[in-house]
Structure formats: C-alpha cells, structure tokens
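lol ok so funny story. i was supposed to be doing the assay writeup but got distracted and ended up predicting the structure for this chain instead. priorities right. anyway since i did it might as well share w the group, maybe its usefull for someone
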Amino acid sequence: AATATCEYPTYYPQSGWAEQNPEDSWNAFVSNVCELLRKSGAAPEDIAAVALDAATGHMGVLLLTKADLYEQVSFRAEDAGILTLPKPVQRQTLYTSLKLLAAVSTRLAKMEQRAKTLEEKMMDIRLVNRAKWLLISHLGMNETDAHYYIEKQAMDTRRSRREIAEDVIRTYDS
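and the output, tada:
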C-alpha cells in the first residue's frame, strides 16, 4: 500500500461561493495514481482499491476487481460500504464512480456532524435537568424556579445554560 496527495484549486467566483472544477479533481486523481504506481512499482492491473479522503476525514473505498469475480466480491463488499467496479473499467465510469463516492462521503460527514450536534444538545438538556433536580432537592425550589434560576444565571453571566448546570452539579452533587 502507498499514499499520495495532490492539491487542486478552489475557485471563489463571488463572496460566499466556492467551486471546484471536476477536471481539476480528475487530473489530481490521475496524478496521484501515477505517483502511487511509481512509488509502489506496481502495474496498473495490480490496483485493487482506491481510497479517497477529501479533507472531510471520511474515506470512501472503490474496489476494482476482476470481472469474473465481480458479483462475488461486490456482494461481500456492499455490507462494508465499499463501492465495487469490474475491471477493465472505462475512464468515464471510473470518474463517475469516484464522484459518487465523494458525494456519498460528503453527505455522510454532514449526517455525522448533525448527529453529533443533536447528541450535544441532548447532553445539554440532561445536564440542565440534573441541575434543576439538584436545586429542587437542595434548595427547595420548584421546577419552574430552578429552570428560571439556570436561565437567569446564564443570561447574567453571559455563559451557556450547560456551564451553569455544570456549576450547579459541581456544587450540589455529592
């Protein structure tokens, strides 16, 4: 196994816009494959898989396999999220597959970020609820007053409700 990287430009036609030319990404891919072949000493027909990581930290895998093994390999690889193509493969098919792989990886990264954000919000809610119950049990507040206390402290100190809740928990949790 070997690795190679190649940067390609992002264009900014106007404020808030970012575009990339598909031909630039294709040329970078071809450059990387040539570099990998040079580094490894492998022949093009020896390439079994291509993994892409486009600054998202998410990697997609495109597996090229012999045509007579394609169905068997593809069936096994699907569960792992590996995209497979039979060899030989035409340039346009490879290019389209790589674009699909990149698009799916980007979408997956966005979904994972959204899940992470939701998990953080749920944790905030859990901490605030725990702090409210500590205020109720230690200071005799009702739930409305405990909620108001946390909200007011957050506004007055310009801190998040989570930070206030964590302070309450540190103070009253034994």
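The mean pLDDT is 83. The beta strands are 49-53, 59-66, 83-87.
back to the writeup now i swear
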